[in-house]
């Protein structure tokens, strides 16, 4: 998605589990307050959006159930055992979400259920990811991320919550919880399932936001925003909104540290980017009231922000408020007269507004009982050729009565 909405097929190569999405183009790179690149393509609302209704809520992790263990292959043979040796119990797959698309199996047991990490903690894992044919696409001896923040693939974020400290597990995930229909160029094809080998090395409490320096806060918020950009490019707008919300919470959190003016300006810049991207994601999901609120928050800080003006105009247009939308788009066009996308959107709204006024005018005429302007006058068939219009009769009667009254007054004076 170039600028505000790059083509999804050009999604940036994001490591299977880095806490930062590397250099993903921002779905809404921040322009100067009163001007943006004239070649930028503002996103256009489409009707055929991906159905995100089946995205698993993270809360469903606790409802996992274990299916029957897979049957061994026919040619498998039991290894010879020494007399008196106790056979190990068979390892079972855990159906994490209950739909068969995300399964976990323990390879090396951990330190007990009480050592499992909690949401919000920072965890460090050893990761090895491979395709179904065994091709290794990722290896990381010390991947660190915030659990439950969707900083990594859903498959990893969901399953690490079930790992015990020191446990090594095998995770088999459908593409839905990895890179979906877009894949990751060039090593992960579209709709590719992944097998992850994960060892939980450490779990610790996350950083205290109140004690972060300005630069640390900016860096953390940018990591969350970039993850949101990744989900936006994957058309996972729900998860994109989640990441942008987390970034905004980081920026808006109270602080016990004094920031420099430059750090304050950086935080405001990241905030505006997040709000613009949030509005873009909300528009994709037809959450118009939320998108309007996000646009207004941007405009409170930057009244001349073209993206916020453009999206606010689109939101109002989607709600049928053409009269309010048109001047907002005119303001955006005044800031960037050469932008063809704003021109096209404004022309479309002007036409829709004219059509709306025509319909309203016709409706009012019908309500008042007046014939429409285009209809031919209906002649009364019962009207005789010699009949006199009633308006003339009324006028003549009034004149006659006036004459009689004048005569009476003159006679009375004489």
UniProtKB/TrEMBL annotation:
Q: What is its EC number?
A: 5.2.1.8
Q: Where is the composition biased (Acidic residues)?
A: 38-53
Q: Which keywords does this chain's UniProt record carry?
A: Isomerase, Membrane, Repeat, Rotamase, TPR repeat, Transmembrane, Transmembrane helix
Q: Which SUPFAM superfamilies match?
A: FKBP-like, TPR-like
Outline the TPR repeats, range by range.
306-339
Pfam families on file: FKBP_C, TPR_19
Q: Record's GO cellular component, any one?
A: membrane
Domain PPIase FKBP-type, residue spans? 120-204
Name of the protein this chain belongs to:
peptidylprolyl isomerase
- Highest lineage ranks of the organism? Eukaryota, Metazoa, Chordata, Craniata, Vertebrata
């Amino acid at each position: 998605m170039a600028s505000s909405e790059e083509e999804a097929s050009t999604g940036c190569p994001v490591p299977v589990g880095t806490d930062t999405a590397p250099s993903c183009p921002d779905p809404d790179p921040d322009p100067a307050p009163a001007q943006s690149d004239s070649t930028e393509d503002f996103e256009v609302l489409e009707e055929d959006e991906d159905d995100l209704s089946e995205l698993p809520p993270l809360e469903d992790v606790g409802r996992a159930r274990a299916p029957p263990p897979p049957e061994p292959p026919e040619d498998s043979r039991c290894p010879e055992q020494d007399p008196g040796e106790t056979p190990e119990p068979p390892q079972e797959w855990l159906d994490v979400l209950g739909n068969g698309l995300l399964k976990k199996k323990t390879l090396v047991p951990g330190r007990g259920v009480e050592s499992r990490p909690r949401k919000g903690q920072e965890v460090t894992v050893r990761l090895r990811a491979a395709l179904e044919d065994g091709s290794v696409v990722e290896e990381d001896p010390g991947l660190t991320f915030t659990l439950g923040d969707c900083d990594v693939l859903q498959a990893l974020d969901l399953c690490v919550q079930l790992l015990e400290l020191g446990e090594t597990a095998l995770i088999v995930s459908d593409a839905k919880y990895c890179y979906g229909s877009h894949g990751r160029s060039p090593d992960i094809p579209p709709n590719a399932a992944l097998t992850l080998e994960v060892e939980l090395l450490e779990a610790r409490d996350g950083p205290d936001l109140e004690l972060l320096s300005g630069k640390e806060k900016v860096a953390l918020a940018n990591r969350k925003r970039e993850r949101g950009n990744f989900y936006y490019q994957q058309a996972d707008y729900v998860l994109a909104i989640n990441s942008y919300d987390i970034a905004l919470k980081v920026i808006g959190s109270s602080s016990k540290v004094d920031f420099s003016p430059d750090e304050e300006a950086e935080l405001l810049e990241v905030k505006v980017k997040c709000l613009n991207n949030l509005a873009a994601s909300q528009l994709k999901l037809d959450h118009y009231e939320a998108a309007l609120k996000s646009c207004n928050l941007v405009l409170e800080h930057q009244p001349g922000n073209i993206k916020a003006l453009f999206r606010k105009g689109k939101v109002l247009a989607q709600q049928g408020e053409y009269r309010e939308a048109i001047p907002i788009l005119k303001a955006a066009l005044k800031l960037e007269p050469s932008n063809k996308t704003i021109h096209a959107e404004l022309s479309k709204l002007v036409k829709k507004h004219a059509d709306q006024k025509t319909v309203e005018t016709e409706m009012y005429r019908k309500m008042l009982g007046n014939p429409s302007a285009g209809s031919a006058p209906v002649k009364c068939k019962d009207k005789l050729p010699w009949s006199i219009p009633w308006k003339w009769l009324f006028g003549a009667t009034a004149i006659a009565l006036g004459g009689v009254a004048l005569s009476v007054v003159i006679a009375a004076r004489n």
